[in-house]
Design brief:
The protein is an alpha+beta fold. The protein is built from eleven helices and 16 strands. The chain has four domains: about 5-65, no CATH class; about 75-85 and about 180-225; about 85-175, Gyrase A, domain 2 (2-Layer Sandwich), CATH 3.30.1360; about 240-365, Gyrase A, domain 2 (2-Layer Sandwich).
Length: about 375
């Protein structure tokens, strides 16, 4: 007869009991998950009676780790999103314009005055020359700005192609650079979507590229595709602009170097702000949901060292001026600078709820999408 030593029996029993103990929370999945979510929210947002009640739904002395259930077992949301890579082409051309202008100004004695054509096709930069006979010189100057395409398949290719027709000089991304830009944009969008989903504590999401410009997102535990789209479909491009006029008309001319921006809450309120942003969301290192001095939900933010220096210098030199916080081309708030802000941090206030301030903080921490998703 097989004899098992006592110590082995005790060890086997202990392992079995430990397994049962750690698997036990999964028998009460909903209660334990609610407890875990409440504990996480209390750490970030503070305590409320509702959160305390949810946290008390599972004894804190028991294990609370859960098996991550997939979309088939737990339910959730499924979304196939298209990335508008054409938006990036247009942004690239906007970024090229100062370089092109500088290159042409250097040969102004030959080409004369130059101006950008605002009605150019999207993704194309067009410049009109005063002296069309100098087009060859202008083409040579602008083509000198081209850089090699940074991909294995684009070896030997340049990132822009420049053409002339009469007095019109046109610049656009080369086909090889468009392919490289598409790949970079999709990869960046994948990383940002993954960070946004991870920020809300979702377990075992599936986020992967499908085809040339689409991304498949499957997230267990989210109630609907609309909820998922609200999380990952917002571009969340944050910028900070000097306010030229807080009471502009949508039909008015904001003046050179300025633009009109609509208020987020009041569709009848328009601002004229400087087009060039003082700072952007890329300068942020953290954003958290908080409550302001009046007890209303807000979002606190903190800049990186370089952003903090710019923010401190600007607020020091512009005490009394209005400073607009713009999210996806809508003004969230435009407060007056009452004193220099040299600590590198601030608050975004507005008509927030606790949920909307939390979501905005998630979006700002994860970063802005490089292009719109639909």
């Amino acid at each position: 007869m097989l004899q098992i030593p006592l110590w082995k029996r005790v060890a086997i029993l202990a392992v079995c009991l430990a397994g049962i103990l750690f698997a036990f929370p999964n028998a009460f999945y909903t209660s334990v998950e609610r407890h875990n979510d409440a504990v996480a929210e209390i750490e970030v947002l503070g305590t409320t009676p509702e959160r305390e009640a949810a946290a008390a739904g599972w004894p804190s002395f028991l294990p609370s780790a859960l098996v991550n259930l997939g979309l088939d077992l737990r339910g959730g949301a499924h979304l196939l999103a298209e990335v508008h890579v054409e938006d990036v082409y247009a942004d690239r051309m906007d970024g090229y314009w100062p370089e092109v202008r500088t290159a042409l100004v250097g040969i102004r004695d030959q080409v004369g005055f130059v101006e950008r054509v605002e009605t150019a096709p999207e993704g194309t930069l067009q410049v009109r020359l005063q002296n069309a006979d100098a087009m060859g010189v202008a083409l040579e100057a602008v083509r000198a700005l081209a850089q090699p395409v940074v991909t294995l398949t684009g070896v030997g290719a340049r990132d822009i192609q420049v053409e002339g027709n009469g007095d019109l000089l046109s610049v656009e991304l080369s086909p090889e650079e468009k392919v490289a830009t598409d790949n970079r944009t999709i990869q960046q969008a994948l990383e940002i979507i993954r960070r946004r989903v991870d920020e809300v504590g979702t377990r075992e999401p599936t986020i992967q590229r499908q085809g040339e410009d689409r991304i498949l997102i499957q997230v267990p535990g989210i109630g609907s595709a609309a909820e998922l789209k609200a999380l990952i479909g917002t571009t969340a491009r944050l910028t900070f602009h000097p306010v030229v006029s807080p009471s502009a008309s949508p039909d008015s001319n904001p003046g050179p170097g300025n633009m009109l921006v609509q208020d987020l809450e009041d569709d009848d309120q328009w601002y004229a702000v400087e087009s060039a942003a003082v700072l952007s969301g890329e300068d942020l290192v953290d954003a958290q949901p908080v409550f302001d001095q009046n007890g209303l939900p807000a979002v606190s933010f903190r800049f990186n060292p370089s952003g903090a220096r710019v923010f401190g210098q600007y607020t020091t030199e512009n005490v009394g001026a209005l400073f607009a916080t713009v999210l996806d081309d809508r003004v969230i708030t435009a407060p007056q600078i009452r004193e220099p802000i040299t600590g590198g941090s601030g608050q975004i206030t507005g008509n927030f709820t606790v949920e909307s301030s939390t979501q905005l903080a998630v979006l700002l921490r994860a970063g802005a999408l490089p292009a719109e998703l639909t």
